[in-house]
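can u do me a favor
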């Protein structure tokens, strides 16, 4: 870094993610000036249960903010605003007077609310709240997780009724702590995160009283819903004391924003722990009949909200981790590409990683993972290839559903996230989608989106056109696959998916 580089102005972004928290500082051109990152513990009390220690996460956030400034030699005075992006749906309740969490956070992947969701569906089933919220009733979302905590933590419901408890997704927890915590912390969330709770009405952008009543959740717990780009408050103490906290976006919406998908029909797919594809649908709330979620894309200040269709895949990057950590078939995540490239094809094997059920477009929590089509011919290299193909096929299922719901054909897919460094996967994706796949210069689009929104809120960037001008293409892959072969293999994939369903019986 040259000395000139560390003189600002800058925008900082905190990304509180599923496996780690980081802080990235960006300059006017949307380039990364410095980064710091720290992992936190994944807690698995029982099969299907996943928790985080929110106190550990908050101390990590403070550490990476200080670390990013120190590493870049950046003066706090040069940071004009800070934006927040976060793992979505992960649910925390804490005591407003002590600031102590009442229980570990329940992570989005956690399936303990399965039975509760069935019960809440009553005679209507998964679609009971879909008209209002755009979401199916699934263990993925925050509302049922809040209800589970109220039902299962000793004395918690009484404390909540007395107004002593606050609920938040991780954006709310980070903003509350940044802005002073027990000393005047601001209790807010933004429209994107609120749209993932199963408690917000997409049409009014307010908490839905009927649903709160149905789920038996006291309204006093809830944060105020604000836009994604406005000043919520100022940092109290720490490395960024006095700096405006000016944006919040759920990580996938932040990536949509960072990829500058500001026009209707533009789509991005983020390949991380799971994979999330979002398509901008403008000011239209498109109800999905093909298993997608209708969600808020973003809202800039007092402008109209922009909606999106979303397809979520539970397991993509984490399947590669599983191959490394649980199976010991590879020593590093990068090795999967080398191993998979050592064979021409998948040897007839298909791997459907329904480890915590199937997400879009099926929403089947009774499904579990399957490797199908095994013969003596199949080697670990074929399995490695099937692992990468699983990510590409699952993406294909989602693009099909998006076209069906919106009537908009996918022209190109903008991609980001850790897995996009895998060139074999990117080529496979283009082959299976029969569309170009484009990776931008700055692959950290989640943080970039939070930075962009915060920058817009404080006038650091004039408008979205200025942001679009920053977007640069780094690489592009085009389809090379024969159509007959594509159709044949897709059919086999769909057959394998069917074999995952109904594995878990109701009474288990």
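np, heres the sequence
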């Amino acid at each position: 870094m040259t000395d000139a580089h560390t003189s600002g102005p800058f925008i900082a972004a905190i990304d509180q993610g599923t496996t780690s928290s980081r802080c990235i500082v960006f300059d006017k051109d949307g380039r990364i000036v410095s980064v710091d990152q720290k992992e936190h513990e994944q807690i698995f009390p029982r099969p299907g249960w996943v928790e985080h220690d929110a106190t550990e996460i908050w101390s990590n956030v403070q550490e990476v903010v200080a670390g990013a400034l120190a590493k870049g030699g950046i003066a706090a005075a040069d940071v004009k605003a800070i934006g927040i992006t976060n793992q979505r749906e992960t649910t925390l309740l804490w005591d407003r007077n002590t600031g102590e969490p009442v229980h570990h956070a329940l992570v989005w992947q956690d399936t303990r609310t399965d039975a509760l969701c069935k019960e809440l569906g009553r005679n209507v089933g998964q679609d009971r709240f879909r008209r209002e919220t755009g979401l199916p009733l699934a263990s993925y979302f925050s509302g049922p997780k809040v209800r589970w905590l109220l039902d299962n933590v000793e004395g918690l419901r009484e404390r909540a009724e007395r107004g002593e408890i606050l609920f938040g997704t991780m954006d709310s927890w980070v903003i509350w702590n940044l802005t002073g915590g027990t000393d005047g912390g601001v209790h807010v969330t933004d429209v994107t995160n609120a749209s993932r709770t199963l408690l917000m009405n997409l049409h009014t952008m307010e908490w839905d009283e009927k649903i709160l009543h149905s789920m038996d959740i006291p309204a006093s717990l809830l944060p105020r819903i604000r836009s994604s780009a406005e000043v919520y408050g100022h940092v109290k103490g720490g490395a960024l004391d006095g700096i405006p906290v000016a944006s919040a976006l759920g990580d996938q919406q932040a990536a949509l924003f960072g990829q500058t998908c500001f026009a209707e029909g533009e789509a991005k797919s983020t390949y991380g722990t799971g994979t999330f594809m979002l398509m901008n649908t403008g000011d239209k709330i498109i109800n999905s009949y093909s298993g997608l979620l209708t969600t808020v894309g973003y809202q800039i200040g007092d402008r109209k909200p922009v909606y999106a269709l979303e397809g979520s895949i539970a397991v993509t990057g984490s399947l590669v981790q599983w191959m490394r950590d649980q199976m010991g078939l590879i020593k590093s995540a990068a090795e999967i590409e080398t191993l998979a490239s050592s064979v021409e094809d998948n040897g007839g094997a298909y791997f459907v990683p329904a480890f915590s059920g199937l997400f879009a477009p099926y929403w089947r929590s009774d499904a579990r993972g399957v490797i199908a089509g095994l013969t003596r011919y199949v080697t670990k290299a074929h399995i490695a290839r099937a692992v990468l193909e699983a990510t590409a096929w699952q993406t294909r299922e989602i693009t099909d559903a998006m076209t069906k719901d919106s009537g908009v054909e996918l022209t190109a897919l903008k991609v980001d996230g850790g897995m996009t460094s895998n060139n074999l996967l990117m080529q496979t994706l283009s082959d299976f989608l029969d569309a170009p796949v484009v990776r931008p210069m700055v692959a950290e689009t989640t943080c970039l989106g939070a930075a962009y929104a915060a920058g817009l809120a404080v006038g650091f960037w004039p408008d979205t056109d200025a942001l679009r001008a920053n977007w640069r293409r780094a690489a592009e892959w085009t389809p090379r696959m024969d159509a007959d072969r594509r159709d044949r293999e897709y059919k086999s994939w769909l057959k394998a998916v069917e074999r995952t369903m109904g594995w878990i019986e109701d009474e288990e």
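Residues 1-5 have pLDDT under 50 and may be disordered. hope that helps!!
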